[in-house]
Design brief:
This protein is an alpha+beta fold and 108 residues long. It has 2 helices and 3 strands, in the order αβββα. The protein has a domain of 75 residues: 2-Layer Sandwich (Ybab, Chain: A). β2 and β3 form a beta hairpin.
C-alpha cells in the first residue's frame, strides 16, 4: 500500500505544479513581429493573442493583403514561441515525463 500512497502523493504534487505552471503561463507576455517590426503581436504563455500593434506607416488601403499577411506571420510566430516555452516548462515540471498524461489538461 505504501507504493500506492506514494503514487497518489506524487500525483498531487504534479497537479499542484501544473496548476502553478498554467497560472504562470497565463501571466507571461511573448511577442513576435513581422515586416521589420511593422506588426507586433503579443500572446500569453498559452498562445492567446493579447495585443496587436500595427505601425501606421504600413496601413495602405490599396494593399490590405500585405497587412493581413504581416499580422498572420506575427501571430503564428508568437504562438510558436509560446508553444516552445510551454513545452520547455512542461519538461521541467514533469521531470521529463511524457507531456500527454491522461487526466492532465493540454494547453495546445
Amino acid at each position: 500500500m505504501t507504493d500506492f500512497s506514494q503514487l497518489m502523493q506524487l500525483s498531487q504534487q504534479l497537479q499542484a505544479k501544473m496548476s502553478e505552471l498554467q497560472e504562470s503561463l497565463g501571466n507571461r507576455a511573448i511577442s513576435a513581429s513581422s515586416g521589420g517590426g511593422m506588426v507586433t503581436v503579443t500572446v500569453d504563455g498559452k498562445g492567446h493573442v493579447k495585443r496587436v500593434q500595427i505601425d501606421p506607416t504600413c496601413v495602405d488601403a490599396r494593399d490590405v493583403e500585405m497587412l493581413e499577411d504581416l499580422v498572420l506571420a506575427a501571430v503564428s510566430e508568437a504562438q510558436g514561441k509560446a508553444q516552445a516555452e510551454y513545452e520547455q516548462e512542461m519538461r521541467k515540471a514533469t521531470g521529463g515525463l511524457p507531456m500527454n498524461i491522461p487526466g492532465l489538461p493540454e494547453l495546445f
